[in-house]
Amino acid sequence: MPINMIVCCKQVPDPEAPPASFKVVGDKMTVPPDVKPVVSPYDENAVEAALRIKGTIGGKITVISLGNNLTRDVIKKPLSVGGDELILLEDAAFEEGDSWATANALAAAIKKVGEYDLILCGRQSADWGAGQVGLGIAEILGIPALSVVRKVEIVDGKAKVERAVRDGYEVVEVELPALLTITSELGDLRYAALKGIMAAAKKQPIVWKPADIGLEPSQVGAAGRHVKLAKLFQPVRETKCEIIEGDTPAEAGANLAVKLREAKIL
Amino acid sequence: MAENKGILVFGEIAEGKLPSITTELLGCGRKLADELNEDLSCLLASDAVGDLSKEAIAFGADKVYVVEDAALKQYEADCYMQVADQVIGQVSPRIILLGNTPMGADLAPHLAFRLQVGLSTDCLELSIDPGTKQLMQTSSVYGGNAQAIFTTEALPQIATTRVKAMSPIERDESRKGEVIPTKVAIDMSKVKTKIVGTIKEEVTGVKLEDAPVIVSGGRGCGGPDPYNTTLKELADVVKGAVGASRPPCDNGWVPEAMHIGLTGKIVAPDVYIAIAISGASQHMSGCSGSKNIIAINKDPEANIFKQAHFGVVGKFEDVVPALTTKLKELLAG
User: Fold this and answer.
1) Hey, what domains does chain A have and what are their CATH numbers?
2) For an engineered disulfide with A3, which of A117, A222, B156, B278 has Cβ 3.0 to 4.6 Å away?
3) Phi, psi of B257, rounded to the nearest 5 degrees
């Protein structure tokens, strides 16, 4: 039987950009303009999980993203690969929220959507990376949740998942509706076909402001935070690397062996 | 709720022992409790706790709340939350500490949202602000590209700590403490999940977390073969274990159990040999505690050289076999 799925996707600066491009200025992280925004990688894995379920038993995929001034061709990516609908919680008031403010707004939007069997989130975002929002949504909605999921299928009206744990995984069944947070082992998001990109370009996202989901501006974004940021900084690493040379790479390798023995490291 | 006082550590039990994350949390909790001049409590919930409550006292706990129930054999949020609800009500702590582990990283957000308080995850440092008595929580953010210090006002304050970031105190069997057996009636009708199987994917040989030497490969290894040949041969000579950064695991070259990094294993060996690893922050988060980092990479601009102590610029296919052969010779002599 087809199911209703909701996937939460966050727009972040490309985490694959070289570390040197991330610079803290004041109390904010900045990246140069050549670092493009992307859908947070684990959220892409969550979209892929939804697409696989849709591909086997069918269903509807509603994608929800929260932010301000979201880049349309980035945030529409889930639509280009097979997502059905995109809801943007987009407003200046949503900016600078913490896990609490974000989960609270997403849960309110999910309640407004109303019909859902499965909610999928990335295990953690590539920017703040707290790994709280998915589980927080489940707690607010009062539904069961499993985190760090590497495989999911729907069997007899339940979700059967593999949850990654240390040195292996657990096979867990969970009643629906449920929330899952997805990890990279599930697999990369498929590429969009040209047809999908064209269709997504034509589709208009639904935009909701705080009032549309029954929240006051004081409950969202920076105003709705539970965790205060006291300081953001980049620790200076003062490692000096001694480069071992040689006439050939092989000789350098042998010289490294001698050096490591001399220094009593090995 | 009574006045929030003291620190409550959520202990874990693995293979009948307190895993290092739990002794690390007790060490960190002890230090904070002494600064506050308050008690350190530890919750141990499992199907069988046995003498581990005494072990928690030896590692610094003043009080150990023991909850034994067959339903607690393996971690499931719906069961553990019922235990947490009751014990937190009983202890009314100022600070709750958990490990950033499959259990703690799952349980902590449930707790924070249920109690409607803030949470900092994967903390590298925790300290008490002497003026406000608040817990200052340092976490790495942006995949390890920066660190943030967070504070939360509402009590209890909750934090999870990164594996190996905190230090245990020395085990002392003469330390006194109180064991408090606690009965929790777990309502199974509230448990919506069911674990139907546990599959081990353990790597044979030396365990990564315990290995004094780790030979680790990255995307630049190009495929699964070097892990079984070039890297394995070096690891065998130095009696080490083979690990990997995330791309080789995501590409299916090696099992996830070998993944070292922010979302994989956190290791701190004496020697970490990074082969064809670029040194992305999220990987370095998992190995920056290593005493010596040695980098072999064909790109002289690779970030790994900024954090390594020794390095060779060259293709690993050329450098590593020569390194292995020479080391074998030197170690034999």
Assistant:
1) 3-224 (3.40.50.620), 236-266 (no CATH)
2) A117
3) -60, -15
A203 CA: distance to closest CA in chain B (Å): 32
Is A144 within 8 Å of B78 when comparing Cβ atoms?
yes
Option in B146, B197, B238 nearest A232 (CB): B146
SS3 A258: helix
**For residue A177, cis peptide bond before it (omega within 30 degrees of 0):** yes
For residue range A5-63, list pLDDT tens digits in order: 999 999 999 998 988 899 999 889 999 999 999 999 999 999 999 999 999 999 999 99
Of A153, A143, A147, A172, nearest to B74 (Cα)? A172
User: What was the ipTM of the complex prediction?
Assistant: 0.94
Which of B313, B312, B267 lies closest to B291 in space, CA to CA? B267
Choose from B319, B320, B325, B331 for mutation: most chain A CBs within 10 A.
B319
Q: Contact A132/B109, CB-based, under 8 Å?
A: yes
Is there a contact between A184 and B263 if contact means CB atoms under 8 Å apart?
Answer: yes
Residue B98 · residue B84 · CB < 8 Å:
no
CATH top-level class for B7-190? alpha beta
pLDDT at residue B171 is higher than 60: yes
CB pair distance less than 8 Å for A241 and B323: no
CATH code: domain B208-332 is 3.40.50.1220
Q: What is the pLDDT of residues B266-308, one digit of tens each?
A: 999 999 999 999 999 899 999 999 999 999 999 999 999 999 9
> CA of A231, closest CA in chain B: separation in Å?
5
CA B215 to CA B275: how far, in whole Å? 7
Q: According to the 3-state scheme, what is the secondary structure of A80-100?
A: HCCCCEEEEEECHHHCCCCHH
Query: pLDDT for A117-152, tens place per residue?
Result: 999 999 999 999 999 999 999 999 999 999 999 999
Chain A, chain B: beta-carbon pairs less than 8 Å apart: 268
Q: State mean pLDDT over B216-231.
A: 97
Distance CA B192, CA B187 (A): 11
Q: Is A27 exposed, middle or buried (0-12, 13-18, 19+ CB in 10 A)?
A: exposed
Question: Å from B205 to nearest chain A CA?
Answer: 13
* Contact flag B318-A148 (C-beta cutoff 8 Å): no
Are residues B292 and A265, on separate chains, in Cβ contact within 8 Å?
Answer: yes
DSSP code for B211: -
User: Boundaries of CATH 3.40.50.1220 in chain B?
Assistant: 208-332
Mean pLDDT for B127-152 is 95
Of A16, A168, A257, the CB nearest to B330: A257
Termini Cα distance of chain B: 68
Intervals of CATH 3.40.50.620 along chain B: 7-190
How far apart are the CA of B330 and the nearest CA of chain A, in angstroms? 8
B170 CA: distance to closest CA in chain A (Å)? 26
Q: Which amino acid is located at A5 in the chain?
A: M
pLDDT above 60 (res B57) = yes
Cβ contacts of B236 on chain A, cutoff 8 Å: none
